[in-house]
Amino acid sequence: MSRLLAILMFVAATAHADPLPSWQEGASKTAITGFVARISKEKTPDYLPPEARVAVFDVDEPLLYASSAELAFAVDEVKRLAPQRPEWTKTAPFSTVLAGQPVRSAADAQALIAATHDGSVDALTARVQHWLAEPANRSAAQGYAQVRELMAYLRTSGFRVWIVSSGDSGFVRPWAERAYGVPPEQVVASTLKARLALQGGSATIVRSPAFETVLTGAAKPVAVERVIGRRPVLAFGDSDTDLPLLQWVSAGRTRFVALLDRGDGAEQAQAAALNLGWLVVDAGRDWRQGAAATATATGQQQAASTQAEPSALVLHARDMLR
User: Fold this and answer.
1) 12 domain-assigned
2) What are phi and psi of 266, to 5 degrees?
3) How many domains does the chain have?
């Protein structure tokens, strides 16, 4: 076989390669690939220039339970820092965690995160990266293979992919980069209060143990517009708390996919989606099962994540399905 023929065969095979191999053939996969094909075709009504191709993924729970990963990190940090904070043994929720009891409320989770995510931004990033690299936290450091695959497909189609989260930016940024390859500058998240300070003769950003913003509900679309400066054309969410973001995205010249979790709010969001004319698709049917394994840097496969998969995908039927 000549070198030229080998190259031509490789190009042909690549051109026809399945961009979403861990997705089952069906309406949702066809809708996504059809949407990308339409907006990429120049001189047509659906064409979107590359600068308008913005996709946002919410990662409060659906993308391998980012909030739970953040809370697990916070709990480990409470245990690590406890010798320096003797008052924690008598103060809830720290005393509860140190006694081995689960965190039972969002308010307690926020208190633990605020108390363990303060200080130098650079130091926190290093701690998170170290924690994610530990073998015991492997599942927390990897995302859904199907979502990573979809993000990669969108990037090759000219999209800029952003992550939106109610989690704290100090954790979500290094986590998102490791789990999904999303760089820190493309993360919109909750933030702690911060100031510029001198430490060891160098200027650094230091955070206080109190939230400045918590992104949930209507705060998410406001933050996305403020940071990105563009209404996305593709958005993913997880529950009823993300409906304001999804409704805002769908109000523009847009088509979107929303990812729903099994947790609280999933049923309400699905009902709302049906009322708005969206197509609800079962992820158990549309994702190839067992595809959540993560490839290591050497190309070997790790064991599949034990986290539950999302229950449904919601597709905006009006624009995506034709």
Assistant:
1) no
2) -65, -45
3) 1
